[in-house]
Amino acid sequence: MGKKKIKVVGKEEAKEQKKRPAFKKQKPEEPVVAEKKEAITEEKNAVEKVEAVKTEKNTDKKEENAEPKEEKKEKVKKEPKSRGKKYLSAKKKVDPDLLYPVLKAIALVKETSISSFVGTLEAHIQVKTAGDLGELVLPHSKEEGKRVVTANDEIIAEIKEGKINFDVLLASPKMMAKIVPFARTLGPKGLMPNPKNGTLVENPEEAVAKFSKGGFRIKTEKKAPVAHLRLGKLDQPDKELIANVEELIKTIGVVNIEKMFLKATMGPAVKVKI
Q1: Poorest-confidence range of 28-42, 89-103, 121-135, 219-233?
Q2: Whose C-alpha in 14, 19, 172, 240 is 20 to 30 A from the C-alpha of 96?
């Protein structure tokens, strides 16, 4: 037998050979191990499929339960109110550019009223200064006959028993301490005395006659120098309504009035000459 040839390697080549990793021969996998791996992968795939189905169902339920999103409503321009034939025919009788004297204005208001019931004479006034315009006592008021009382021990005893036999309660500042405990009873009915409507006064006895005749405060709107009042019923004589209008103008003052209109509850406005 011949001798094996031994290759002589230099120092540098020997170092390189040491650095190189020695490759081990991989043994072929046993068939049992391979089957186990396949089973594990199949289980993973099955679990993933089940979870995917669950997530789909949950998302479908959320979408079903979710409230529908409100669609942005487009701003619709309000159309002017359409008037009936009666109103339009009544409006033709009034000249919008003409200032009518009080007597003619009241006659025209009665003529152009289109309501089936007895309407009210309304006054709509534009003034220069907003706020409190004074206290008006109409010479001829349909509200006459109001039950006006002055707060005293007898009246307070009746309130305590639940008896309220009055329409207006007047009181002095000294009596308010006795009335305050009944604020929950009187307040909702508008019967609690207060300085704004003139029911809390120093001399209540003197104010009884004024409130019995239907006196009230004239106030403008909060954001506009405009006041709206009722001056009587249209079935009253013209003389009575004229006197009420003249008293209104006197109370507010001619200088403070810029515009004034009279109208029925259902009817066109008539511009009045001040």
Answers
A1: 28-42
A2: 240
